[in-house]
Amino acid sequence: MSVQAMSWAMQMPKSTLGDASARHVLLCLANYAGQDGRGAFPSAEQLAEDTGLSERTVRYKLDLLEEMGLITRGNQAIAAAYIGRKDRITNVYDLQLKRGAVAAPGEGTGCSSQQNGVQTTTERGAAVAPNTSLNQEQNQEQGREGAASASGEGGSNDPETAADQPRSRAKGFSLADMQALTDTAGIAISADVAKDYLAFRRELKKPLNATIWKTILTELAKVAVHGISADQGLAEAMTAGWRGLKCEWLVNRLKHHQGPGAGPNDDDTSWANNLNEDSV
């Protein structure tokens, strides 16, 4: 999985790609790319499984993404090296990370950058590029610390304030960082549920960071296809005591809990015997 490619796909502006199904296909395709966005070759069948769309729709959206220049055909020899049967070889795609979303600082022509590495001007009068995800998190953290210092408030000196703003020990990942990435992904999660889940992960000694939370958001996007809300998915994960979260886990759990004519059976965990809950 490429965090860079996933972040690029998640931060794609709606003005660039407004088709929700195409965005979902692009996000899942990015999961198979390398760090530079190259060499993704999942089959249409696999992408249909990941997105919940039909294979025909997946193929149509891939063609659309290719027409828009967001993906291009890559080195087809990569797939041939991994897939023995010629009739099973899939297309190899390269994601164009320099297009559509966050541009790399200082690259390309007609661009200038400030000392924080954020591109401030673009060629052809396009909109100003936003911060990269890493700079954005750092700037948000510095802004919060500066505001607390100016007002004479310290999080460690005010237990009540600290309780309202739970913070993970992993790289200072806070509730505000969590909500910022959630908004970028376009997923609706209530503040109370997000706060509870952040605290839940700390109690398990598996604190969240940006990479883990982006992976969980990808799984929550998948469960939406099955009619499961993000709030419900996180609540089920906390109830089950999972240290990770996968779409198939939630679907299987709710299927067993919602049998015809029967209420939930929290004592039945046989369906989870072979699950690896440490994958996230």
From TrEMBL:
InterPro entries for this protein: ArsR-like_HTH, WH-like_DNA-bd_sf, WH_DNA-bd_sf
Region Disordered, residue ranges: 104-171, 258-280
Protein name according to UniProt: Helix-turn-helix domain-containing protein
Composition skew (Low complexity), residue ranges: 135-151
Pfam families: HTH_36 (PF13730)
Regions of compositional bias (Polar residues) in chain numbering: 110-123, 270-280
Membrane-traversing stretches: none
CDD domains on file: HTH_ARSR
